[in-house]
Amino acid sequence: MRILVFLLLAGAVVAAETAIYDVSGYTSTATGIHEFSVLVISDDGKVVATGDAALLSAYPEAIRIDGNGRTLLPGLTDAHAHVYGLGFLRTSLNLAGSTSLGLAVRRIAEYSDSEPHLTWIQGRGWNQVLWPVKKFPTAADIDAVVADRPVWLRRIDGHAAWANSKALEIAGIDDDTPDPIGGRIVRDQSGKASGVLVDAAMELVTRHIPAPDKAAIREACRTATRHLLSLGITGVHDAGISIQQAEVYMAMADDDDLDLRVYAMLAGAGENLDAMGQPLTGHGDDRLDIAAVKLYADGALGSRGAAMIEPYSDDAENRGLPYYSADELTAFAQKANDMGFQVGIHAIGDLGNRMALDALDRVQGGVPSALRNRVEHAQIIALEDIPRFARLGVIASMQPTHATSDMNMAEDRVGPERIRGGYAWQRLLQSGAVIAAGSDFPVEQANPWHGLYAAVTRQDRAGEPRGGWYADQALNRAQALHSFTLAAAFAANQDDRLGSLEPGKWADFIIIDRDYFKVPTAEIDDIEVHETWVGGQRVYQAGELQ
């Protein structure tokens, strides 16, 4: 009898839908924004229907949750980010916001004193563009406060790093060490290695840093996930993971320990891809896909590693640093596509973007591919190359806050003509391209409301510049939301199951404190998340201990 009663009770629970009512609901669809006041969810976490209050009568047995007039949106997806990097940064030295070299050095000294057990001091976030003297720092600057342990600090964009003399010594870098292909050892006027390494040169040091074990990777991913869910992010495209990180993700999904959805890109078309062998999709109730490969065409604009067709406007002897030859990049993309993996190519400069498009053009035979290959960042594009995205069906995976972070130096780097193809969101959309939006955290803050605000205003959080930076390229609110939801799902070949609150898709949604479509634009970046739901289950509620 006890068993029968249990089965009857369990059956009653399983059979019940959940109806969330009295909400201002919005979801992007293929035909535009759909509004609703009631969301009905099945027992297995899928969307059953959306509609007005009359919908409740169709589901009289549903568990009812009063939304109290709040706004409900699909869960947001960050289409280009680094989950382990975010988790690691939250427990390491964060130099973001350092407004001078002196302040950065003080932070290094304080962190070193507080962490005497660390064999390597690591961190990220410095940006010489924000300092009064906009010059790269040197090893001697760190040596003055930490000389006995190696120090390794990545620039905010991750494409340059600052080392002390101990780290250079361990790596065997001296004044005679040649620049590797795709990288540069920054040197002073006398030819001495200064302590800053750009792009591929960073590998000279990183190969000597002890790798984290799986337990450390898992804890970093958990730390990042808790933070992301509190911001309303239910999905992340993790751009460039190792096979070890892939194994951690698979274990987390198997253990029901992955509270958001991860679409992961393997780092490179070499040993990580070979070890993976074939794409993984829909793992752990659609919590994990490992179905793409991240490649590099060039470096970053801030460190002048982005590859340019013509020299930098503020450095006439420099055209940046292509990572590979055209043939190598094409071969890597071909290998990944042939194995069934989508390709995402990091490209910042106009030459980097052209090389990426050329490679994909050759691999795809000049036509769109069902794999929906991507260009990651697509920051500075030659105007004549913009239509190629739509023609080839290549996704432009872009980060709105990069525009507002870079506007203090971008035009200095490329000049007034080339900047017309920079962060050119409307030009891309009008040409027929798909834009998937993200943040590139921890390069930028993970908060997607900052990205939505930047997309709509083309301003920093202080409201500058008045009227917006090249405001004709701003997105409207519907376009911005689409880029963080359904377009992001499309970019991962997941739009049949994720990205919108349409029947049959997973019920991934958020409840926020104000109406995204009605508040003044100046308030978009202040939106706060009350609840986050993944697969019909609440995984975050404001005020609860996380």
Please tag this protein with its features.
546 residues; Diaminopimelate Epimerase, Chain A, domain 1; alpha/beta; six-stranded mixed β-sheet; globular; 19 helices; TIM Barrel
Layout of secondary structure:
Blueprint: H1 2-15, E1 18-21, E2 24-29, E3 32-36, E4 38-41, E5 47-51, E6 63-66, E7 71-74, E8 76-81, H2 83-89, E9 93-94, H3 101-114, E10 121-126, H4 139-143, E11 151-155, E12 160-163, H5 165-171, E13 183-187, E14 193-199, H6 203-206, H7 214-230, E15 233-241, H8 243-254, E16 261-267, H9 271-276, E17 280-282, H10 283-286, E18 288-296, H11 326-338, E19 342-347, H12 350-364, E20 374-377, H13 386-392, E21 395-398, H14 400-406, H15 410-418, H16 425-430, E22 435-437, H17 448-457, H18 477-484, H19 486-491, E23 509-512, E24 529-534, E25 537-541
Parallel strand pairs: 1-6, 2-7, 8-15, 9-10, 10-11, 15-16, 16-18, 18-19, 19-20, 20-21, 21-22
Antiparallel strand pairs: 1-4, 2-3, 4-5, 7-23, 11-12, 12-14, 13-14, 23-24, 24-25
Helix pairs in contact: 2-7, 7-8, 11-12, 14-17, 17-18
